[in-house]
TrEMBL record:
It catalyses: beta-D-fructose 1,6-bisphosphate + H2O = beta-D-fructose 6-phosphate + phosphate. It comes from Nitrosomonas halophila. The gene is fbp. GO terms for biological process: fructose 1,6-bisphosphate metabolic process; fructose 6-phosphate metabolic process; fructose metabolic process; gluconeogenesis; sucrose biosynthetic process. This is Fructose-1,6-bisphosphatase class 1. The lineage of its organism: Bacteria, Pseudomonadati, Pseudomonadota, Betaproteobacteria, Nitrosomonadales. It is found in: Cytoplasm. One of its GO terms (molecular function) is fructose 1,6-bisphosphate 1-phosphatase activity.
């Protein structure tokens, strides 16, 4: 018999912190967790059950969909649509908001998610994840319209991610710190293994896709160049670099040992403002990072303060160890070099 606190126990205790939370929140989070366990099983079996490879369809982002993108999206929908806790759902894989079928009751929360982040890695067996964010519906028990989802990240009730790696982990916050749970497959329960996760204020490890270097804006060019200069440059220390191309894995590494992750604005398509999506990647991850003592900025403003204008809008992302994020943000407000 395990001695650790189970996620179920933890959620019930957490619910006491959330103003106005009733059993609804606990039951909703349990449904999300059931979906995550089901996704973990599908991802873990992989080729054994024929879920590898791509479809000949694209999602709203114009990205080719993996079979698992669609399968995991369906798992999130099917596990969360029926219980009466939600007024609607939104996903990276769906153009429009998902309306709860009329046969089911409506509830007071909104669930926003990226069902399988980093899915381009799934065929090469690199860690992927699920990212989710829970908001309050402006009008409970009424079918939510797209506008109801367009709330700044500071309004999130809960944010979390599942990491399908060497072990399956669930990391979440409800605004009172960050806690990590590891799936014990023998009993089908998540057990508290990483209590009160904190991001070190300083780091010597940066993460960015260096192949885009020629498209970065000047402040990011300057920051990365100084990292590469190491001891011989103005930062007077050597840096290490990582890039997994799976945001969930990058953020988990930063929560575990510090670091800074950047997917900056890119001059190729200024309208895109970067690659990562605000509502179901940047906002939930920023909530988690801030709750663990880190910082998350677009370079120009706190990510959690960004007022959304579209369900699938993108933002530049600079997050992680707060003193390092401050350096990059400082370069964004420094006078342009003559
Ligand atoms: P690139 C995965 O597709 C993702 O959305 C994030 O998980 C990841 O950090 C980023 O894109 C990787 O982007 O351009 O390096 O493939």
């Amino acid at each position: 018999m395990h001695s650790g606190t189970t996620l179920t126990q933890f959620i019930i205790e957490e619910q006491r912190h959330i103003a106005g939370a009733t059993g609804d929140f606990t039951a909703l989070l349990n449904d999300v967790v059931t979906a995550i366990k089901t996704i973990s099983n599908a991802v873990n079996k992989g080729a054994l059950i024929g879920v590898m490879g791509s479809l000949d369809t694209e999602n709203v982002q114009g990205e080719t969909q993996k079979k698992l993108d669609v399968i995991t999206n369906d798992i999130m929908i099917r596990n969360n649509e029926w219980a009466g806790h939600l007024a609607g759902m939104a996903s990276e894989e769906m153009d429009n908001v998902y309306s709860i079928p009329t046969k089911y009751p409506l509830g007071k929360y909104l669930l926003v998610f990226d069902p399988l982040d980093g899915s381009s890695n799934v065929d090469i067996n690199i860690s992927v994840g699920t990212i989710f964010s829970i908001l309050r519906a402006p009008v409970p028990n009424r079918a939510a319209a797209k506008e109801d989802f367009l709330q700044p990240g500071v309004k999130q009730v809960c944010a979390g991610y599942a990491l399908y790696g060497s072990s399956t982990m669930l990391v979440l916050t409800t605004g009172h710190g960050v806690n990590g749970f590891t799936l014990d497959r023998d009993i089908g329960e998540f057990i508290l293994t990483h209590e009160d996760m904190r991001i070190p204020a300083d780091t010597k490890e940066f993460a960015i896709n260096a192949s885009n270097q020629r498209f970065w804006e000047a402040p990011v060019q300057r920051y990365v160049a100084e990292c590469l200069e190491g001891k011989t440059g103005p930062r007077e220390r050597d840096f290490n670099m990582r890039w997994i191309a799976s945001m969930v894995a990058e953020v988990h590494r930063i929560l575990t040992r510090g670091g800074i992750f950047m997917y900056p604005r890119d001059t190729r398509d200024p309208s895109k403002a970067g690659k990562l999506r605000l509502m179901y990647e940047a906002n939930p991850m920023s909530f988690i990072v801030e709750q663990a003592g880190g910082k998350a900025s677009t370079g120009y403003e706190r990510i959690l303060d960004v007022e959304p204008t579209d369900l699938h809008q993108r933002v530049p992302v600079i997050l992680g160890s707060k003193n390092e994020v401050d350096v990059v943000v400082g370069y964004h407000s420094a006078p342009k070099a003559e």
